Amino acid sequence: MATIEIQNLVKRYDDGFPAVNDVSLDIADGEFVILVGPSGCGKSTLLRMIVGLEDITEGELRIDGKRVNESAPRDRDLAMVFQNYALYPHLSVYDNIAFPMRLSKNKLPEDEIDRRVRRASSMLGLDEHLERKPGNLSGGQRQRVAMGRAIVREADAFLFDEPLSNLDAKLRGQMRTQIAQLQRRLGITSVYVTHDQTEAMTLGDRVAVLKKGRLQQVASPRELYEQP
Ligand code: ADP
Ligand code: ADP
């Protein structure tokens, strides 16, 4: 669990154009913040700066009060879930979920890894698929494996980059419910990029609207989407 403090964050790519421009946002412990805005407005860039996959040009990033501008992704201990799942095709579901724990520099004992994989799989309804390879799974099952991999790390926060955008409407609804339940159960600080208004309405404590790299508005889903 963690707070995420974003202060005057700027990202300039090599061409000098500010993809993220002076964004400030305080995210409380356990809060679920949705990031919305048109394509190219800087959502992914902001997420990638928070997780540490993109250098910060200007500004300050604090996780649980500690400045992390220069620390590697591993030292920030945030778990990211991508829209393309990023699963390892040659590994079983079990090994895909266990992978980040085996990679970690503070490696857990194998029986603790096993306990966490089984607990996450049961939360996500994957118990019966642990020996299968990702290529033999449905889109929704793959997405759940990606979620499982994030959960087992017991990271300080989750960062989601349009995790459901590759799923059909029915699966998207099911996964949305599952993410909402997980969030209630785990109460973990989350930042979630989406284009989907229903996801923003059902998952978000607050919605942050980005436009051309700038934060335009931060409001509750109700304030933002419901007519007065
Ligand atoms: P979004 O996720 O909201 O679609 P992005 O964060 O991907 O937006 O992109 C924000 C802006 O930064 C866009 O103008 C995009 O073209 C630019 N951009 C993204 N990644 C790079 C990169 N690696 N190099 C240069 N410009 C980039
Ligand atoms: P570095 O290369 O700075 O030492 P790491 O060894 O921690 O960083 O991570 C290596 C790669 O693993 C990163 O470039 C990234 O692709 C991936 N990675 C690490 N941590 C995360 C994370 N929390 N979320 C998503 N991807 C990550």
Question: Would you mind describing this structure in some detail?
Answer:
With 228 residues, this protein is of the alpha/beta class. The strands form 2 sheets. A 6-stranded mixed sheet has the order 6-7-8-3-9-10, sandwiched between helices. A 4-stranded antiparallel sheet has the order 2-1-4-5, covered by helices on one side. The mean pLDDT is 91. The chain has helices at 43-51, 73-76, 93-103, 110-123, 139-152, 169-186, 197-203, 221-225; strands at 4-12, 18-27, 32-36, 58-63, 66-67, 78-81, 157-161, 189-193, 206-211, 214-219. It binds adenosine-5'-diphosphate (2 copies). This is ABC transporter ATP-binding protein. GO terms for molecular function: ATP binding. It comes from Brachybacterium conglomeratum. Residues 4-228 form the ABC transporter domain. Keywords: ATP-binding, Cell membrane, Membrane, Nucleotide-binding, Translocase, Transport.
* Cα distance spanning the termini: 34 Å
Taken as a percent bin, the fraction of beta residues is 25-35%
Mean pLDDT: 91
The class by helix and strand makeup works out as alpha/beta
DSSP summary: helix tally: 8
User: What order do the strands of the largest sheet run in, or round the barrel if closed?
Assistant: 6-7-8-3-9-10
Q: Given the C-alpha coordinates, what overall shape results?
A: globular
Low-confidence stretches: none
The number of distinct β-strands equals 10
- The secondary-structure element order is EEEHEEHEHHHEHEHEEH
**Hetero compounds:** adenosine-5'-diphosphate
Estimate percent helicity.
Answer: 25-40%
**Rg, Å, rounded:** 17 Å
Q: Which sheet architecture does the biggest sheet show?
A: 6 strands, mixed
